[in-house]
């Protein structure tokens, strides 16, 4: 689970970095950069203010790793599929499951190595100021995810409590009158 959360955090960061060459534009003097630093609250990618040269360098880094990244991602999909098939067997063999889990783990680790390697190369293209901005952007993504997770937990807890209340009401309604239900109407003779 921790590996998946780390993988998700890295993926989000790389998605931000991957979108740089596609989305970022150098703002004109009439068009100030926007983002999360009080400059308009729009596209966070533009806040990095990449030069044309930086965008090209990032594009080249991503292009150099495209084939290897595709191979690694395919391996992750295949190992996940093999694990699912092993789980769906009528009588799953524990040793086969362990082997499939190890294969998935190895493939995911390789994918993470590739993402980290790419991110390090991209960070080397950025200026110190841009790295600080990127770090703040990542921190904001983490905070957003944490708030969302907390809200999700509260929502789940509220739904569970509501289910418990409904279940209790149903039990009270279904309880026969002869079992000492205090809410039964008084008997008249």
Percentage of β-strand residues: under 5%
What is the CATH-assigned architecture?
A: Up-down Bundle
Kindly state the percentage of residues in helix: over 70%
Using the alpha-carbon principal axes, give the shape.
Answer: flat
Total strands: the figure is 0
Instruction: Return the structural class.
Output: mainly alpha
Regarding quaternary structure, what we see is single chain
**CATH class bucket:** Mainly Alpha
pLDDT < 50 runs, ≥5 residues: 21-42
Structure description:
The protein is mostly helical and 189 residues long. The protein has one domain (2-142): Up-down Bundle (Four Helix Bundle (Hemerythrin (Met), subunit A)), CATH 1.20.120. Helices cover 72% and strands 0% of the residues. It has five helices and no strands. α1 crosses α2 (52-64), α2 (52-64) packs antiparallel against α4 and α3 (66-87) packs antiparallel against α4 (94-125). It is flat and about 80 Å long. The chain starts with a helix and ends in a 15-residue tail after the last helix. The model is unreliable at 21-42 (pLDDT under 50).
């Amino acid at each position: 689970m921790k590996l998946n959360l780390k993988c998700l955090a890295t993926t989000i960061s790389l998605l931000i970095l991957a979108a740089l060459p596609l989305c970022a534009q150098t703002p004109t003097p009439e068009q100030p950069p926007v983002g999360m630093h009080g400059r308009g609250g729009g596209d966070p990618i533009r806040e990095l203010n990449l030069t044309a040269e930086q965008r090209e360098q990032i594009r080249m880094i991503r292009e150099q790793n495209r084939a290897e990244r595709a191979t690694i991602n395919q391996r992750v999909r295949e190992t996940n599929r093999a694990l699912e098939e092993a789980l769906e067997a009528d009588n799953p063999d524990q040793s086969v499951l362990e082997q499939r889990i190890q294969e998935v783990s190895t493939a995911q680790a390789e994918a993470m190595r590739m993402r980290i390697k790419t991110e390090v190369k991209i960070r080397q293209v950025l200026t110190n100021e841009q790295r600080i901005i990127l770090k703040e952007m990542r921190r904001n993504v983490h905070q957003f995810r944490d708030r969302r997770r907390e809200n999700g937990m509260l929502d789940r807890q509220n739904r569970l409590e509501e289910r418990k209340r409904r279940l209790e009401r149903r039990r009270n309604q279904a309880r026969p009158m002869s079992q000492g239900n205090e809410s039964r109407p008084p008997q008249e003779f």
